[in-house]
Amino acid sequence: MLFAAEEGGGGLAFPPIENIVEWPALLFEGNTLLEFNKIGVIHLLGLVIPAVVFFLAGRQKGLVPSGIRNVAEGIIDFIETQVVLPTMGAEGMRYFPMLISFFLYIFIGNITEVIPFFQMPANARMAGPLVLALVAWVAFIAVGVKHNGMGYFKSVLFPSGVPKALYLLVTPIEFLSTFIIRPFSHAVRLFANMLAGHILLVTFSVLCIGLWALKPTVIVEALTFPGLMLFTAFEIGVSLIQAFVFTILASVYIGLALHPEH
Questions:
Q1: CA 124, CA 195: separation in Å to the nearest integer?
Q2: What is the C-alpha to C-alpha distance for residues 208 and 228, in angstroms, rounded to an integer?
Q3: CB-hemisphere CA count at 13 Å for 183?
Q4: pLDDT(114) > 80
Q5: Please, what is the Cα angle at 104 between 146 and 41, to 5 degrees?
Q6: Are 197 and 113 in contact (CB under 8 A)?
Q7: Angle subtended by helix axes 221-258 and 96-111, to nearest 10
Q8: Is 97 exposed, middle or buried (0-12, 13-18, 19+ CB in 10 A)?
């Protein structure tokens, strides 16, 4: 990622943005829909790793959990007590499998940002967050229609207690905010945070490499390298927080669809 300065002018040259978010194909080259690259590998791991963890945990016998079963039960308890019950109550447990899948899939897609070889969060590409946000969008609309019939749309677009004359203003706002802006903001929040963190880590990495190579400025390494370590630790926390935020927002949206009058 470090490019030598042109014409021996010294200094550092940073890679263009496309060089840190685009990756060559590993399979099916040719810029087609079947092209499979590092981002595809990460998304695949987001499906496989949770499945393996819960499969191995489910094979353990006995009342006292240990090892990987402790991990699985800890994740389950976290999503249940911190996401589902506070936002939907006990009736929200029917949507628990989808929400825990969101959390684990997103977390794995985020944490690869700080894992050697990968060093890229899959969710720093908009496609992944957008698909997840659309799944949540379809889910909360389906839940609203299932539990309230077509009256769900009436209760959202024409909230009770509003003077009829104001519906000319309120209804378009409710339509845009609930059915258009909500999935877009849901996706962009995850994408923008992960992309910004990735760019930050790349910047400090380039500085560390460049200042180590430029002998007269090596003293500055004492500042840049600790900064890189600090931001790496920070991004680990961000990876977890962003997975949690996306999941709890999806849970809130489903909860609102269950009881739109609230």
A1: 4
A2: 8
A3: 17
A4: yes
A5: 115
A6: yes
A7: 160
A8: exposed
Q: Quick check: 194 and 110 in contact, CB under 8 A?
A: yes
Q: What is residue 158's three-state secondary structure?
A: coil
pLDDT surpassing 50 at residue 3: no
Q: 69 with 57: CB under 8 angstroms? A: yes
Amino acid making up residue 213:
A
Per-residue pLDDT, 124: 92
Q: What is the pLDDT of residues 60-84, one digit of tens each?
A: 887 777 789 999 999 999 999 999 9
pTM value is: 0.86
**Two tokens at 61?**
């016998």
User: What residues form DSSP beta bridges with 3?
Assistant: 13
Residue 188: name the closest of 176, 200, 196 by CA: 196
Rounded CA gap, 214 and 203, in Å?
16
- The span from the CA of 117 to the CA of 124, in Å, is 16
How far is Cα 218 from Cα 158, in angstroms, rounded to an integer? 64
Could you tell me if 235 and 124 are in contact, meaning their C-beta atoms sit under 8 angstroms apart? no
Q: What is the pLDDT of residue 37?
A: 85
Q: What burial class does residue 257 get, using C-beta atoms within 10 Å of its C-beta: 0-12 exposed, 13-18 middle, 19+ buried?
A: buried
Q: Residue written as tokens 């430029």?
A: 214
As a whole number, mean pLDDT of residues 166-183 equals 93
How far is residue 146's CA from residue 48's CA, in Å, rounded to a whole number?
A: 31
pLDDT value for 107:
97
From the DSSP assignment, how many helices (H) and strands (E) are in the chain?
Answer: 9, 0
* Residue 261 pLDDT: 65
Contact 12, 5 (CB under 8 A): yes
Tokens of 16: 């263009």
